[in-house]
Amino acid sequence: GESVGLHLPTLSVQEGDNSIINCAYSNSASDYFIWYKQESGKGPQFIIDIRSNMDKRQGQRVTVLLNKTVKHLSLQIAATQPGDSAVYFCAENQASGGSYIPTFGRGTSLIVHP
Amino acid sequence: GAGVSQTPSNKVTEKGKYVELRCDPISGHTALYWYRQSLGQGPEFLIYFQGTGAADDSGLPNDRFFAVRPEGSVSTLKIQRTERGDSAVYLCASSLSGGSNYGYTFGSGTRLTVV
Asked: Which of A30, A67, A95, B36 would disulfide-bridge A72, Cβ 3.0–4.6 Å?
């Protein structure tokens, strides 16, 4: 299940299940969104991105859904594997003087049990 | 190089000391970003360079923090009079351009511990 508290929100799933990680973003003017995976001791690693003119984009085992009405993103991981265990962040690109700055959400820790 | 390189990977310093953290971006990437990540939090934006100039330094927490990128490639984040609250992982990212059409590649970060 999913829990939110003082610690990082955590999602625990069994290997083979599908995982859904949710993210709320803040700026309705953001036009580009990215999901990152971060393993312990490493920097964030790009997973998939989506532009605001789309509401769904699929990659290999991953799908990102964008709902601009409620400013919500989700990342769906199919057939979750132990190697998917990591912290997942969504980032929105916010405009800054003609350029864009990725702004990160808090993150969700995904734990995959074999 | 093939990826974004950050050195050192770990740095322990005493309170009040000065530290420099280095970022070597992907060759040809004109945009470079510094972030700070505290335990259990997402990366927090510090400063963004487009070429040699700091295009946005609105995330720097105070005047003890400064960053340079004199030749438009390697960047150095400098922290003066370090405080224990500066302890965090400092991440660097680069992209081809500062526009929204290009992805960002992160380094593995420098873990700074102020004792």
From this structure: A67
Each residue's pLDDT, cut to its tens digit, for chain A (114 residues) gives 333 334 679 999 999 999 999 999 988 888 889 999 999 999 999 999 999 999 999 999 999 999 999 999 999 999 999 999 999 999 998 777 667 888 998 899 999 999
- B57 CB near a chain A CB, below 8 Å? no
Q: Which residues have C-beta within 8 Å of that of residue A1, sequence separation ≥ 6?
A: A11, A12
- B114 HSE (CA, 13 A, CB side): 17
Tokens of A24: 């709320």
Instruction: Select the residue of A98, A99, A105 nearest B42 (Cβ to Cβ).
Output: A105
Residue B76, both tokens: 């150095």
